[in-house]
């Protein structure tokens, strides 16, 4: 009798868990996590990237990012060696403006994958727009209970082919991520280290990206000077990309 | 130069206001070069010192002033120094229209090494299509841009030279360009009228296919047709290959300066393979390497070009550039270049 009772309880618990998982809308969770990460749909922010090799900082980059909605991103390169460069993303279409060519040059999605932190890591942060989410499981990560999502690219402009994404159960705040190429290669991992509350909304202020190919290399991204802002559509036109 | 300085001093305070932003940069380059197999009298080595400051000021979304200069000191036997005004212009936005007055670099062509439709573009050199020393100069012009959604209409009048010295082959030009992004095609249609009565019409496009391929093309008509097709392919490891085919008619406008008037229609090929940041090799993360090849397919002459550069910290970049022409010394476009190899080694400091 007692064995039957235990079996029934376990079966009930498993059924409830399965029902809970099937009730979780992975895509809605992903949208919520995007808002937790970005704070607002339209904003400007400074991103400072410090690259580390074998524990020592070897390079710094500074970017001014302007984001409007989910499709429009304008990135101004501000570090000494890259001054005068701009990156524009309009959905799946991308251009880079280089001062030595004096025109916006059309680039392919694969051309964005350079550096420990790629252009896509800076400019392509609305995952719900780029990926289809599937709920995998619940597990602890960085000491907090997390939903684990599998994100599969649904647009050619998506930076990665697949992402395994841990978001906090309590509020869908991103905690960590593993990034994979089409070949299946695990190329990078990221931890979302620090958030700040500002005007009743949270937003990411620090993340770290670990290179999984060169294991002794990682990049720290610091977000500052965040400002929720309505941006004119004209800023996001390839012909005007150099007008900071 | 003095007038330019006074102009900057006069304009900047007048524009100061809320929401203003400034940008500046300074680049100092010292480059040594030496030629081997020199077939003309003269020094086979030289030195180039470049000081290139740039400054831009923006007041809200209404005004923007930008200037970019190059101080060039060249030693090749004798030493010559001069200052080039690469760009100096004022942008004003009134309603939906942006107006530009001044000297401005425009690049309307979509080709990488060649262009048929770049009627206001600086003259392009296939052996140095990215202008590695940033010495291109703009045209003195008045320009108006109207942008609405994915549509952009530009009307420009560019002088053959008002303040600047008149350059050979440069005409007063009135041009209209319509640019639109539709179905992934970034497409432009250009019509122009040039001093001397010549009319120009052309169209170009770029299109990305999948995640790794970009295609581009240009068609232009000025007395006869010039056509360019090209593409770019990027591998998952970041190696980028660019290839182009270009054909020009035997007219003074399209003809390369190194060719005689009777050379006939010319056909060119270009290939470039490059990798930025050779991260796969230990110790090579800071290196960029590229090799390119440009050929005149009619006379069989060609030039091989090699570039390698390494970053040091956040401000220094060292590089090497070498080009080796080949072909008949007489009667071929690239074979007539009077050396067998030219090597340049330099260091750049950027602030």
Please supply descriptive tags for the structure shown above.
heterodimer, A: 244 residues, alpha+beta, outer membrane lipoprotein receptor (LolB), chain A, 13-stranded antiparallel β-sheet, 18% helix, B: 351 residues, mainly beta, Porin, 18-stranded antiparallel beta barrel, 1 helix, 18 strands, 4% helix
Task: List the SSEs and their pairings.
The complex is a heterodimer of chains A (244) and B (351).
Chain A: H1 2-23, H2 26-38, E1 42-53, E2 56-68, E3 72-77, E4 86-90, E5 93-98, E6 103-107, H3 119-123, H4 127-130, E7 131-141, E8 144-153, E9 162-168, E10 174-180, E11 186-198, E12 201-211, E13 217-228
Antiparallel strand pairs in A: 1-2, 1-13, 2-3, 3-4, 4-5, 5-6, 7-8, 8-9, 9-10, 10-11, 11-12, 12-13
Chain B: H1 2-15, E1 20-36, E2 45-59, E3 63-76, E4 78-94, E5 97-104, E6 139-148, E7 151-158, E8 173-182, E9 185-194, E10 198-209, E11 213-222, E12 224-234, E13 239-248, E14 266-276, E15 287-296, E16 302-312, E17 316-326, E18 341-350
Antiparallel strand pairs in B: 1-2, 1-18, 2-3, 3-4, 4-5, 5-6, 6-7, 7-8, 8-9, 9-10, 10-11, 11-12, 12-13, 13-14, 14-15, 15-16, 16-17, 17-18
Polypeptide structure, described:
The complex is a heterodimer of chains A (244) and B (351). Chain A contains 4 helices and 13 strands. Chain A has one domain: Lipoprotein localisation LolA/LolB/LppX (outer membrane lipoprotein receptor (LolB), chain A), CATH 2.50.20. In chain A, β7 (131-141) and β8 form a beta hairpin. Chain A starts with a helix and ends in a 16-residue tail after the last strand. Helices cover 18% and strands 48% of the residues of chain A. Residues 5-19 of chain A have low confidence and may be disordered. With 244 residues, chain A is an alpha+beta fold. Chain A is globular, with a radius of gyration of 20 Å. Chain B is globular, with a radius of gyration of 21 Å. Chain B is mainly beta and 351 residues long. Chain B is built from 1 helix and 18 strands. The two termini of chain B are 23 Å apart. Chain B has an 18-stranded antiparallel barrel. Chain B has a single domain, classed as Porin (Beta Barrel). Classes of the chains: A alpha+beta (244), B mainly beta (351).
């Amino acid at each position: 009798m007692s064995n039957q009772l235990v079996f029934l309880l376990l079966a009930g618990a498993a059924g409830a868990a399965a029902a809970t998982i099937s009730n979780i809308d992975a895509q809605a969770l992903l949208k919520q996590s995007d808002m937790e990460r970005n704070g607002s749909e339209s904003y400007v922010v400074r991103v400072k990237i410090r690259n580390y090799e074998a524990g020592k900082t070897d390079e710094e980059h500074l970017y001014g990012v302007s984001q409007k909605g989910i499709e429009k991103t304008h990135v101004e390169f501000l570090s000494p060696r890259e001054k005068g460069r701009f990156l524009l993303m309009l959905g799946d279409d991308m251009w880079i403006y280089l001062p030595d060519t004096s025109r916006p040059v059309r680039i392919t999605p694969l051309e964005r994958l350079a550096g420990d932190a790629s252009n896509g890591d800076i400019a392509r942060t609305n995952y719900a727009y780029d990926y289809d989410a599937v709920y995998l499981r619940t597990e602890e990560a960085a000491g907090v209970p997390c939903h684990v999502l599998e994100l599969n690219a649904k647009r050619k402009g998506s930076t990665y082919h697949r992402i395994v994404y841990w978001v906090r159960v309590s509020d869908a705040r991103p905690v960590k991520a593993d990034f994979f190429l089409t070949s299946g290669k695990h190329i990078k991992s990221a931890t979302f280290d620090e958030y700040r509350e500002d005007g009743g909304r949270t937003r990411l202020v620090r993340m770290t990206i670990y290179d999984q190919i060169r294991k002794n290399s990682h990049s720290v991204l610091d977000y500052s000077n965040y400002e929720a802002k309505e941006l004119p559509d004209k800023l996001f036109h390839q012909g005007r990309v150099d007008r900071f | 130069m003095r007038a330019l300085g006074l102009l900057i001093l006069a304009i900047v305070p007048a524009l100061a206001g809320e929401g203003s932003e400034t940008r500046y940069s300074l680049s100092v380059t010292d480059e040594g070069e030496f030629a081997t197999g020199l077939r003309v009298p003269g020094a086979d080595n030289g030195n180039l010192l470049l000081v290139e400051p740039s400054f831009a000021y923006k007041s809200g979304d209404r005004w923007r002033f930008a200037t970019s200069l190059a101080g060039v000191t060249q030693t090749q036997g004798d030493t010559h120094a001069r200052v080039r005004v690469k760009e100096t212009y004022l942008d004003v936005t009134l309603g939906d229209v942006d107006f530009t007055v001044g000297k401005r670099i425009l690049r309307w062509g979509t080709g990488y090494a060649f262009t048929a439709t770049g009627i206001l573009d600086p003259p392009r050199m296939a052996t140095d299509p990215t202008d590695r020393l940033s010495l291109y100069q703009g045209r003195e012009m008045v320009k108006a841009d109207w942008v609405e959604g994915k549509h952009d209409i530009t009307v420009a009048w560019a002088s053959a030279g008002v303040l600047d010295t008149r350059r050979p082959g440069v005409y007063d030009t009135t041009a209209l360009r319509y640019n639109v992004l539709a179905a992934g095609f970034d497409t432009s249609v250009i019509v122009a009228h040039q001093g001397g009565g010549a009319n120009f019409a052309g169209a170009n496009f770029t299109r990305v296919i999948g995640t790794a391929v970009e295609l581009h093309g240009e068609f232009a008509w000025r007395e006869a047709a010039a056509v360019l097709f090209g593409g770019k392919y990027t591998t998952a490891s970041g190696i980028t290959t660019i290839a182009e085919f270009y054909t020009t008619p035997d007219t003074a406008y399209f003809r390369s300066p190194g060719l005689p008037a009777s050379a006939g229609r010319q056909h060119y090929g270009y290939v470039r393979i490059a990798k930025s940041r050779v991260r796969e090799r230990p110790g090579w993360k800071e290196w960029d390497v590229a090799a390119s090849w440009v050929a005149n397919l009619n006379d069989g002459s060609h030039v091989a070009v090699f570039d390698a550069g390494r970053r040091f910290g956040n401000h220094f970049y060292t590089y090497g550039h070498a080009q080796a022409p080949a072909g008949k010394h007489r009667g071929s476009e690239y074979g007539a270049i009077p050396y067998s190899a030219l090597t340049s080694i330099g260091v750049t400091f950027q602030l």
